[in-house]
Specification:
Blueprint: E1 11-16, H1 20-26, E2 28-29, H2 31-36, H3 47-54, E3 67-71, H4 77-81, E4 89-94, E5 105-107, E6 118-120, H5 130-133, H6 143-152, E7 156-160, E8 162-163, E9 168-173, H7 176-185, E10 191-193
Parallel strand pairs: 9-10
Antiparallel strand pairs: 1-4, 2-8, 3-7, 4-9, 5-6, 5-7
Length: 200
């Protein structure tokens, strides 16, 4: 079944808790805009993946690093890789209205992947299989199919330059400890413990 706008409740961005006050102040910035404004953030991104993203150009001419990137499904392989850091992480909840923003783009899998397809949002959602992107697991007996599913579950919404902080509607954390840390930094943010999201 193809994914539709009505299937989306919210979108997601995985962030170190320590970065959230800056994100709420400046918005969710693209990699290049973060560097341009000289904003210091802790990064949890893979250096290899970032190297691939830095060299990738999106149809229309802009670099992938010129876009703020948001996940359709936060319970994905990226978050799984970071589980040993979950006490320091949160998943920011992003209003799905960003899909209506001018020049927003949908990628049918992780945008760094070689075979990723890109289409304007929100119509680009139709490229994605609903059951695959929101699957409980990416495990598969066929290693090639497993790798493909890992990519699909990391499908992205790409927004040029930045997502304004008004679209950040809350955050999920993995534990009471993480909750206390984030609420201490951002007392007005709607923070919720969601252990299932963090594979608990």
């Amino acid at each position: 079944m193809r994914l539709a706008l009505s299937d989306i409740e919210e979108l997601y961005f995985i962030a170190p808790i320590i970065n959230v006050p800056s994100i709420l102040k400046h918005g969710l910035l693209s990699h290049n805009m973060t560097r341009q404004l000289k904003i210091r953030h802790v990064s949890v991104a893979s250096q290899d993946v970032q190297a691939r993203r830095s060299n990738k150009t999106i149809p229309g001419g802009r670099k992938l690093h010129d876009y703020a990137n948001i996940y359709l499904n936060a319970r994905n392989p990226m978050l799984y890789v970071l589980l040993n850091q979950q006490k320091e992480l949160c998943v920011l909840r992003i209003d799905k209205r960003v899909l209506q923003l001018r020049n927003a783009i949908v990628s049918d899998r992780n945008a760094a992947r070689d075979w990723a397809k890109f289409e304007p949002a929100p119509d680009g959602l139709e490229m994605i299989d609903k059951e695959e992107v929101f699957a409980v697991s990416w495990n598969h007996a066929d290693p090639f199919e497993k790798d493909r599913l890992k990519g699909v579950m990391c499908a992205e919404v790409l927004v040029p330059d930045k997502v304004e902080s008004k679209y950040i509607i809350g955050a999920y954390v993995s534990s009471q400890e993480a909750y206390d840390t984030l609420k201490n930094l951002c007392p007005d943010l709607d923070v919720r413990i969601n252990r299932t999201l963090f594979f608990q």
